[in-house]
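Session log. Operator J.P. requested a structure for one protein chain; no other inputs attached. Running the standard single-chain path with token output.
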Amino acid sequence: MSDTITKGPEAQPEDNTPKAAPEKKQKPERVASLWSDALYDLRRNPIFVIGAVLVTFLVVLSIVPQWFTDGSPFDGGACDLANSLKRPDAEHWFGYDVQGCDIYTRTVWGARNSIIVGILTTVMVTVVGSLLGLLAGWKGGIIDSILSRFTEIFFSIPLLLGGMLIMSMWGEGNAVSVSVVMAVLGWPQIFRIMRASVLANKNNDYVMAARALGAGSGRITFRHILPNAIAPVIVVAAISLGVYIGAEAALSYLGIGVQPPQISWGLMISDASVRFLNAPHVLLFPSAALSVTVLAFIMLGDAVRDALDPKLR
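Structure written below.
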């Protein structure tokens, strides 16, 4: 008698071949450059994020102040002497000024002239100072000497003192005239920075290579020199924007900047300063708005400086 052996399913031969690990998707490498590294750092800098949010809000506030108020301070019924110097309450958060005008509405609309002066002055100063500094640094020789001596004349005039003198002769003050006056006195700082940056970059290897390949003077200047020399100018311009807003407030406070019936924080502070003891809220809110605005732009400028300065990395 033979035993019947029941065979099960054939055992599969064990595969001892090492399996290849699943391929990981490689992230695209970040292109290394001054600007890409600076942008990468800025996105991770909380000071820059906070400053950028505040600046964006203030710019929107200055463009469309009516989005944040029920009406305009220029309306006929916007002020009522019966409400003169009333303190803040649940309906009117900032209270009223001596003319019975709502301080919140005037503070919001006052942002327009202050922000316009800061941005317009910075743009004019940056454009004029950068172009003249680029010309002086690249050409050198007699052109550099003439522009440098001409710059020293303006550089010796203090911003506020010169602004007071020119605005007192100008007469009517508004955001554009104040911006022009401060730009006339402020461009030498940008000129010096751009000139020094061009002198430091114009003998680098990439400039020599471009010249050896037959590139013209204009192409070298604007395609190679300018992009590599503009970084310190951007840093100073970003920080100076807040300074110009403060300077406009100082000129308006002295009565030679933006003139009524226009509104600016400097004018509001000037009107409120004599009533601080019996109505401190009239001075508090426009002063706080001015301080926050200047601080926001300085925070933005400091963050940009930290990102663009290799020594601070």
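Operator note: The CA atoms of residues 113 and 175 lie 6 Å apart.
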